[in-house]
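Journal club prep, shared notes

We agreed each person brings one worked example of a sequence with its structure written out as tokens. Mine is Trehalose 6-phosphate phosphatase. I'm keeping it raw so we can talk through how to read the token line rather than staring at a rendered picture. Sequence first:
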Amino acid sequence: MGYQQNPESFWKSTFDDGGDATKGSYTSWLAKHPSALDNFDEMMKKAKGKDIVVFLDYDGTLSQIVEEPDQAFMTDAMRSAVHEVALCFPTAIISGRRRDKVFQFVQLKNLYYAGSHGMDISTPSGSSKYTGHKHQTITTDEKGNEVVHFRPAQEFLPKIQEIIKALSDMTKGIKGAIVEDNKFCISVHFRQVVLEEDVCILKERVENMMQAYPNFRISSGKKVMEIRPRIDWDKGRALQYLLDTLGFGTSNNVLPMYIGDDKTDEDAFKVIRRIGQGFPIVVSSTPKQTKAAYSLREPTEVMCFLIRLVKWKRSVSSSKSIA
Ligand SMILES: O=P(O)(O)OC[C@H]1O[C@H](O[C@H]2O[C@H](CO)[C@@H](O)[C@H](O)[C@H]2O)[C@H](O)[C@@H](O)[C@@H]1O
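Then the structure, token by token:
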């Protein structure tokens, strides 16, 4: 399939799933979103000579989904795979979590981190462009290096703290409910709320309470309600911002790769689709509606894919140096 010659038709045929993917069996869904492992060689033929930039989601992609949000650790093997990938390609993690929390989990310095669904991005000034954008600021880190921050929801911080306080008070009586402070957004978790009735009460209370905050919106994730400022910013915009600031904004040769498992990752898949070149890869072992072109079943498959990517890159580089 020559998507480089005809991006429109490639993306149409690759992504349009008629909206009925959730109804079909896994096998028929897989035919529309083939395994990135099984199709690795074919994908890499398209990637040869391109500037690959890797984007990764965290929860459900680099770590397994677990009951307790604070316990979503990644394995050392996964950490090592991500580290190796980042030695080969510019690599960023774009997560719904607060940025410092993702860094605590990942602990790798050779990556770019975007937290709060992309509303908190920091990049070393040496590798990124400071454009004087109104949401950009520069600080100096402990080693004296300049860091460029992009925080489009900064003005919402006081309101977010007010909402967190109100949500924490309101959910106290609901066993298992957790309110997570993600800095520029908030997660209200109900994975550990056992009674279905309590889940309904929780959702209703949160929805009612948030009516008093029209500048915020609620979206849903995996057994979680996500509350965030109503601004035109999401993981897709964060991906584009990172491509721009890392110097790939006007490149016809860039090939972004995004691996993610949740609804908020769809915004990034859409941006890759719009760019017309790249690999949007969904992590799912069940059929779901998605704009992704490829799929991986679970984090262990993500790790295998990342390891293969590193091997591929090294083999391409060594054959170039021999020639
Ligand atoms: O964008 P992500 O990095 O995928 O973050 C999305 C949310 O992930 C976390 O919640 C999810 O994972 C938890 C740990 O496995 C699980 O307990 C929870 O049910 C899931 O929804 C995180 O806690 C949220 O703040 C993120 O927004």
